[in-house]
């Protein structure tokens, strides 16, 4: 099960919180945080709690958002050269998704920074592909990662390497 910790403005659009505060889900990468960007059309920004990897996808139709998240996360993981076995396993665990309330202020701060950067890139080129933009954002240094791998793309690579070296039992 995938847990998506959504900002209040996204919960108002996509549905009520159904996940408990202590739910972590069953995905190897753990919970994701999400907010809505009020572009035309609206876009959802997801940020992984563990790696700070950003993912962007269209909000519409909001009623089907939770059923579309797995495919977009898988697409971005593939764009970052994640091993197919890990992408497939994550996608299998993400088939069920629940929305919850945000709980990690550090991830929320990173999400706010990504939203600002995404807005700048979007203003420069409104036709930019959301996967391409997510990959570009993943190269942004993030202060919570300074003592480890500095950028979400590098943190993801290190996490994936650890997962393939020491597979979960």
Oligomer: single chain
Mean pLDDT: 93
Annotation, overall tally of beta strands:
5
User: What is the distance, rounded to the nearest whole angstrom, between the alpha carbons of the first and last residues?
Assistant: 17 Å
Contiguous low-pLDDT stretches (5 residues minimum) are none
Largest sheet: 5 strands, mixed
Query: Going across the major beta sheet, what is the strand order?
Result: 4-3-2-1-5
Considering DSSP H and I runs of 4 or more, what fraction of the residues is helical?
A: 40-55%
What string, H for helix and E for strand, traces the elements in order?
EHEEEHHEHHH
Structure classification: alpha/beta
The figure for the number of domains is 1
Query: Mind telling me the CATH class?
Result: Alpha Beta
Shape: globular
Number of helices: 6
CATH fold descriptor: Nucleotidyltransferase, domain 5
% residues in beta strands = 15-25%
- Architecture, according to CATH? 2-Layer Sandwich
Q: What Rg do the Cα atoms give?
A: 15 Å
Structure description:
There is one protein chain. The protein has a single domain (about 1-165), classed as Nucleotidyltransferase, domain 5 (2-Layer Sandwich), CATH 3.30.420. The longest helix is centred in the last third of the chain and has 20 residues, at about 105-125. The chain has helices at about 10-15, 65-80, 85-95, 105-125, 130-135, 150-165; strands at about 1-5, 30-35, 45-50, 55-60, 95-100. The protein has about 170 residues and is α/β, with parallel strands linked by helices. InterPro entries: DUF6933.
